[in-house]
Amino acid sequence: MKKVIDLLKEIRPEFDFNSSQDFIADGMIDSFDVVSLVSMLDKEYSIKIKGRDVIPENFSSIESIEKLISKYGVNL
What we know:
Elements: H1 2-11, H2 31-45, H3 62-71
Helix pairs in contact: 1-2
C-alpha cells in the first residue's frame, strides 16, 4: 500500500490519498494522471497493464489499484 501511495504522491503531492475512497470522483487524479500512474506501475512492478484495464474503476482507490496490480501476478 505504501508504495502505491508514494507513486500517487509523485504525481499529485498536494493530496492526501488516505482520505479518499474515490480519487477520480474527488478530483484527485484525472485521465492524464492515470496514464502516468500506469507507466509508473509498469516500471515499478515489472508488469504491462493492458489497455482494457485502464478504466476509472481500476484507479479510484488504493484497494482498486492494488487489486489491478495483483491481477498481473504481483504479490503485495
